[in-house]
Batch of 2 targets.
Target 1
Amino acid sequence: GIIHAKVWLSDRRDIYIGSANNDWKSLTQVKEVGVYIAGCRKIAKIVKKYYNNLWTLASLNASEYTTTAWDQQWQINRTVPCWSYFIPDKGRCRSPLPHRF
């Protein structure tokens, strides 16, 4: 899958998390959803860790961390991260991302 999250941090205290792209059409014509929090350093610190996790995930070598797994429900092969629940426990790798942020 892909990550479609938008995370904006400003001045270590203002946060936006949502689906809107930063262009005219997304901000004026397309229905998007998001949350804006102003002036909260405590939440901004948590969101920064979340952002860093997304950045780490985006920079992984996809071929090293993906595999093909059978999806029983849809009866198709899927390309999934090697830590996906589609892979039986004993064949699953450890996620490179921290469990907590």
Target 2
Amino acid sequence: MHRICFLFSIYLSTVLSVQTFAEITPYLVTGFAEPKIRVRVGQSLKKVIVSGTDLKRTFHLGNKLKVFPGRKRIKFNCDSFGHKNRKKFKKPTLLASLNSMTGLVTVSGKKYMGTVDIVTSPKSDSCDVVQETRLEDYISGLLAKEMNSSWPLEALKAQAVAARSYALHKMKTNQVSKTLGRKAHYHLESSEKHQVSGSFFDMTRSTDLATTETQGEVLVTPKGKLTPIFFHAKCGGKILRPDQVWGNTVIGYHKNPKGGHCIGHGKKKWRKKISYKRFLSFLKWAQKKKLINLKTKISGKKKIKILADSKKRNSIRLYWGDLHLVVAKPIFRRYFGRVLFPSNNFSLNWNDSKRAFAVSGSGLGHGVGMCQLGALDLAQKGWSYKKILALYFPGHKLEKAY
């Protein structure tokens, strides 16, 4: 990976059953040069302080360029600016761009490579900060956040390919802008909603190497089409398809890969409880959202009986009074959140002594795509990143985008 000069430089049956990807073939669909990615790294900030050496600042409203020799600290009072110009800026507007001859710009104590953009937030009372940088530099900084930079190289390489594929799909489809219904000044954001990216000091020799050795590699469908490539922390023994979690089918995800390689890593199990009142509120919400098929309106107090359940099932079967209901497990996580339901891999039963519904589960995350702790385990056992990706993405192939 090109860098500016001063930057520091499992069991036998399972093994035999998994096919590895063939040699990387040219990415025929696009064949473009390495792109630059725009990542929202700060959101709804009242004030933004940018510093650096030999800063170059461009004010886009008047197309004014100014260079500041030496060390410079620039403050943007976004709240007061937004208050004065609320009527003028009815949608997010690019205010300023800053970069440095050194290649590094500091925002709120974090050093970022590339260019930093200051954009008005949707309500114009604050600012968003967007980093524009080379996609490969973005991937190197991300690896220490989405995984651990001390993990085996092959696990990091698998993560690099998955994250690059996810990011490139967002970029090529302009998905954020389509979702918002307006022009977005970024391709994706640094959060669990998309991917958690890192700053310059999150980049290490290992993350650089994992990025360099997979440069430009992405996962595509057999016809060479980019699709979202998902990953999560720990499957807990079961990997799901997108349609089982979000209700929409994604090309390439036609199988449920074998999970469970993560069992010896991380927290083994988690337990939670839900009161009758909260459970009833959940059922009413699910009915209102038409997530359960029940014509009779849920109201009043009736006995709720949970039928025998296990983590292997993808739905909860229950009786509300005399009415039989089937509720997909991911709906619980959507309503109650990630704290109460860390994963979609759980069983639910009534605890008579505590007068509450007992939830027992394992895993962390939505459970779709690559299990990161599973990738760690497989890499520790000597699996290559190609073999790891082939296991978790059997409906995709590895190709080189640039």
